């Protein structure tokens, strides 16, 4: 806390400076002035918290200085020193709201220290009151939607600040024995088949849900935050309704809107700033939707309802499924997956993310052991993985897995029917000879015939006794020689064969034929 001394008598200034234990009092003597004018200048620079000032000063008396100083910092405190007991000075000091009025003739340093400590405590109290007022005004100024969003996100709010705002919003709310609860409401749009909803539709449903919550639960509903992209609403509740009451409300909503909702409900907490952590618990409870039909009320338990560790039976089935995929025994894989579903539906449930990871591993395993996985399906595969991680139901995840496994099985069956490998290679050669005018890749052919690139490469080399690229370049040089014999220029030939410049064509020709194309011109 900053202190300033204004005194024209040097001995008095020196006495005050030396006799008072400034650091012990938590104060810092920042400046001294010997007249009113100098005091005014130094005050503007340092803006002290407390000023000890004599009345009788040269150039500007103490009262004039105080009046001027108040215009720069109204909350500074002043202790007036004087040699006079005249009531005129006392009245003027009172009018200026000075903190204390001390006669120099009776000045006692211990007494002055006590006065300084008292004034310092008063300053601290005033600052605390001002801070609380600023906080209250700041919280009051925040719109409700922003307030609840910041509260849920744990931004800028202590429990005290939150309660101040809540009491402004709901004056009847009790300040003692508070009981809060976090709810996360999930709109079960997946239950409606072949019906699409826009975000505007979802917002409309959200408004209706909140209206019904206010109407049904009254002051128990405090507020909430919407999460439209996930069809969710995060509510903070007070004076907790009974579970039976909540279930009847959920049934009423389903009857009114034709759409079921599920609710994850946290345990009770008393400190408002704990909404964030309890909201996460309520959201985690909704993961149980993966195993259940819609319209469920999930209540927080001491132990997490979701397990992060696979049971021995699930681990055993996982191992067996991977082995059977490697043997392409898809019927056995299907049977094991159905058995696994029974295991997964028993409690404690395995966390849905772990199940999705496991099913994704099965998909990659299926693709890796199947040579007939067409390159055109690479994009489809990525989309399938996205769908797997977005699905909200175990039955849907199983369907995605089994449908893709059936796709691969059918492709394998199709390839088994192609006994004449030579016919496949002949078709590839025919395609090459019909497209010598451009760059040709095996990827392009694989896309055309819906077969795997690496499989076609091995098949071509096995039958043709040369690599695919080697064959393409050989056929291009054959066509080039034919065109040269027909009088075409090398530049024209290179363009006809899809080369951007003559030098690229020449390098290719020399690499394949062992000499430059000019050796094959009629003139040579």
Could you outline the blueprint of secondary structure elements for this entry?
Blueprint: E1 2-6, H1 10-19, E2 28-33, H2 36-46, E3 50-54, H3 62-72, E4 77-82, H4 87-95, E5 100-103, H5 109-141, H6 144-153, H7 159-169, E6 180-187, H8 199-217, E7 221-227, E8 232-238, H9 243-257, E9 261-269, H10 275-285, E10 297-299, E11 306-307, H11 312-326, H12 330-344, E12 349-350, H13 352-369, H14 377-390, H15 394-416, H16 421-434, H17 442-449, H18 453-464, H19 468-485, H20 490-496, H21 502-513
Could you characterize the architecture of this molecule?
- The protein is α/β, with parallel strands linked by helices.
- It has four domains: 2-128, Rossmann fold (3-Layer(aba) Sandwich), CATH 3.40.50.2300; 145-302, Alpha-Beta Plaits (2-Layer Sandwich); 307-416, no CATH class; 421-520, Homeodomain-like (Arc Repressor Mutant, subunit A, Orthogonal Bundle), CATH 1.10.10.60.
- Helix content is 56%, strand content 12%.
- It has 21 helices and twelve strands.
- The chain has helices at residues 10-19, 36-46, 62-72, 87-95, 109-141, 144-153, 159-169, 199-217, 243-257, 275-285, 312-326, 330-344, 352-369, 377-390, 394-416, 421-434, 442-449, 453-464, 468-485, 490-496, 502-513; strands spanning 2-6, 28-33, 50-54, 77-82, 100-103, 180-187, 221-227, 232-238, 261-269, 297-299, 306-307, 349-350.
- The strands form three sheets. The chain has a five-stranded parallel β-sheet with strand order 2-1-3-4-5, sandwiched between helices. The protein has a five-stranded mixed β-sheet with strand order 7-8-6-9-10. It has a two-stranded parallel sheet with strand order 11-12.
- Helix 5 (109-141) crosses helix 7.
- It is elongated, with a radius of gyration of 43 Å.
- The termini are far apart.
- GO terms for molecular function: DNA-binding transcription factor activity; sequence-specific DNA binding.
- It is found in: Cytoplasm.
- Keywords: Cytoplasm, DNA-binding, Phosphoprotein, Transcription, Transcription regulation, Two-component regulatory system.
């Amino acid at each position: 806390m900053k202190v300033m001394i204004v005194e024209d008598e040097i001995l008095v200034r020196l006495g005050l400076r030396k006799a008072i234990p400034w650091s012990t009092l938590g104060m810092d003597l920042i400046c001294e002035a010997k007249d009113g004018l100098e005091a005014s200048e130094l005050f503007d620079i340092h803006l002290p918290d407390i000023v000890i000032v004599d009345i009788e000063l040269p150039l500007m008396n103490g009262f004039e200085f105080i009046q001027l100083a108040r215009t720069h910092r109204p909350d500074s405190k002043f202790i007036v020193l004087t040699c006079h007991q005249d009531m005129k000075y006392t009245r003027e000091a009172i009018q200026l709201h000075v903190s204390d009025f001390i006669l120099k003739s009776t000045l006692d340093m211990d007494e002055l220290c006590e006065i300084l400590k008292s004034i310092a405590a008063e300053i601290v109290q005033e600052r605390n009151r001002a801070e609380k007022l600023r906080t209250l005004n700041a919280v009051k100024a925040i719109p409700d939607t922003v307030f609840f969003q910041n509260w849920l996100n744990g931004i800028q709010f202590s429990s005290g600040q939150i309660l101040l705002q809540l009491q402004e919003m709901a004056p009847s709310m009790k300040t003692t024995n508070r009981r809060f609860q976090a709810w996360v409401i999930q709109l079960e749009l997946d239950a409606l088949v072949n019906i699409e909803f826009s975000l505007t539709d979802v917002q409309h449903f959200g408004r209706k849900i909140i209206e019904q919550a206010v109407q049904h639960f009254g002051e128990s509903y405090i507020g909430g935050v919407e999460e439209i992209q996930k069809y969710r609403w995060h509510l903070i509740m007070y004076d907790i309704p009974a579970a039976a009451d909540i279930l009847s409300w959920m049934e009423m909503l389903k009857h009114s809107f034709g759409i079921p909702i599920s609710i994850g409900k946290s345990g009770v907490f008393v400190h408002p700033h704990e909404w964030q952590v309890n909201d996460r618990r309520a959201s985690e409870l909704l993961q149980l939707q993966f195993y259940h039909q819609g319209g469920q009320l999930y209540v927080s338990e001491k132990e997490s309802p979701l397990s992060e560790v696979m049971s021995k039976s699930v681990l055993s089935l996982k191992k067996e499924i991977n082995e059977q995929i490697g043997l392409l025994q898809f019927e056995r894989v299907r049977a094991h997956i159905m058995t696994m579903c029974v295991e997964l539906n028993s409690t404690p449930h395995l966390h849905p993310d772990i199940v999705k990871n496991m099913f994704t591993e099965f998909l990659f395993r299926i693709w890796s052991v199947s040579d007939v996985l067409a390159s055109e399906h690479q994009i489809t595969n990525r989309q399938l993985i996205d769908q797997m991680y977005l699905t909200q139901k175990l039955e849907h995840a199983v369907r995605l897995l089994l449908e893709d496994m059936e796709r691969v099985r059918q492709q394998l069956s199709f390839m088994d029917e192609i006994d004449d490998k030579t016919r496949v290679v002949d078709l590839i050669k025919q395609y090459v000879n019909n497209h010598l005018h451009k760059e040709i890749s095996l990827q392009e052919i694989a896309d055309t015939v819906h077969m795997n690139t690496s499989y076609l490469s091995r098949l071509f080399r096995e039958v043709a006794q040369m690599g695919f690229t080697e064959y393409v370049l050989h056929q291009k040089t054959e066509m080039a020689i034919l065109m040269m014999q027909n009088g075409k220029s090398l530049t024209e030939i290179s363009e006809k064969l899809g080369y951007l410049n003559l030098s690229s064509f020449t390098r290719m020709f020399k690499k394949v034929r062992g000499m430059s194309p000019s050796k094959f011109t009629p003139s040579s």
